[in-house]
Amino acid sequence: MPGTMDVTLRFERPSTCRLVVHRGAVSSAGPVLHGLTSADRVVWISDEAVAAKLGGQVESALSAAFRHVDQLTIRVGENAKTLSDFADLIARLHALGADRTTPLVAVGGGSTTDSVGFVAACYLRGVPYASIPTSLCAQVDAAIGGKVAVNTAVGKNMLGTFYHPRLVLVDPDLLDTCPDGAWRDGMAEIVKVALVADADLFALIESTGGRLRGDDETTDRVIRRAIRAKLRLLTPDPFEANLDRLLNFGHETAHAIETTTEHTVSHGAAVAIGVATATRIAVRRGLLDAASGDRVSAVLRAHGLPTGHAFSPAGLRAYRTALRQVALVRAGSMRVVLPTTIGAAVVANDVGIDDLVGLVGSDGSA
Ligand SMILES: NC(=O)c1ccc[n+]([C@@H]2O[C@H](COP(=O)([O-])OP(=O)(O)OC[C@H]3O[C@@H](n4cnc5c(N)ncnc54)[C@H](O)[C@@H]3O)[C@@H](O)[C@H]2O)c1
What mean pLDDT is predicted for residues 300-326? Predict the structure, then answer.
């Protein structure tokens, strides 16, 4: 028809991410990042605890290649993922005079890589950024894959996007100062990915009998294997077009547990409870043999992780309501990843909220 225009425009953002994993990698952060961005200034951002332990190393590594190095501190843990902290960080970057070419470097655990990554995606419609993950969870999971987000009053990670860093430097030496609790939380993500995608990794974790920390050689093997397993799962679907992702294992209920308990149950502990609950459902359905179910409970416990949560009656009601909200967000059905053997899983579309609520408290073996 004359006067009408109807065209389909295709836009693709060129996006590559260099991933470097080895002990001592942080010392090369300046030259490697400078080579990828050629900016003359950089802003690195971490929480107070990480800045106190690792700030000196990061500052000197970046100063080796950037003329101006600024640092900003954010609050510890999920506090960094609030909307007010997001707005505050944007304002502080503006006050510093950071422009569209200024790379941001997130140095910290998953809360830092999530929140700084989201700021990088939004500030001036997107600036380059790099991640130097310092917790086990961030090294094997949060900093890998470009998923960034902050929380809102409606729920965890409600506001976010996929925005890939130019560089991820995984330096296992940085884990020396990682608190034990954060280490345990990282183990939950490793058990998760092993159980759905890598039976050998699962056996490797089992073989440590819960004593991985301090064994540098095995830790390095576990980190590399867990990253590879995650990359294998996400590379075919980098923007989560398919909602049936095995990487969601344990997470369908984890966010509801975290919010219902006001984050007194950490993300990793909530993932462990989600993994254990889904495993019990799989055993009940005859999808997974009981002996494998017992191996899952045993490996979680050996690494200091919970396999259930004792909600109060009011807490259980709030949990049920939070799960209904998850089902709503996920288009009305509760899709839950269920293991079928150690190293493989399926997505079930018909798991009832009653089953999830009913089995969350069981702390016995599957
Ligand atoms: N984007 C993703 O794909 C993804 C995946 C998994 C988890 N996450 C998110 O990651 C967050 C959890 O990450 P986390 O377990 O790393 O918790 P965290 O970032 O809150 O860190 C836990 C604690 O460890 C401290 N810490 C971390 N590294 C340290 C170090 N080397 N030395 C001293 N202190 C150190 C921090 O200061 C903090 O107090 C959650 O918000 C979760 O939603 C995101």
Answer: 92
Which atom of ligand 1 has the smallest separation from the CA of 147? 1
Domain boundaries, the chain: 18-177, 180-358
Reported as a pLDDT band with limits 50, 70 and 90, residue 238 is confident
Q: Is 145 in the pocket of ligand 1 (CB under 6 A)?
A: yes
Q: 0.90 exceeded by the pTM?
A: yes
Is 154 a residue whose pLDDT tops 70?
Answer: yes
Higher-confidence position of 214 and 329: 214
The DSSP 8-state label assigned to residue 78 in this structure reads G
Instruction: Tell me how far the alpha carbon of residue 358 is from its chain's centroid.
Output: 27
DSSP state at residue 270: H
Single-letter code of the amino acid located at 323: L
Q: Quick check: CB of 251 below 6 Å from ligand 1?
A: no
* Phi/psi at 279 (5° precision): -65, -40
Q: pLDDT class for 365, splitting at 50, 70, 90?
A: very low
The protein residue whose alpha carbon is closest to atom 7 in ligand 1 is: 142
- Ligand 1 pocket, 171 CB below 6 A? no
Give the ligand 1 atom nearest the CA of 111.
19
Shortest CA distance to 98 belongs to which of 80, 62, 71, 58? 71
Q: Which CATH number fits domain 18-177: 3.30.1330.200, 3.40.630.10, 3.40.47.10, 3.40.50.1970?
A: 3.40.50.1970
Domain boundaries 180-358, CATH class? mainly alpha
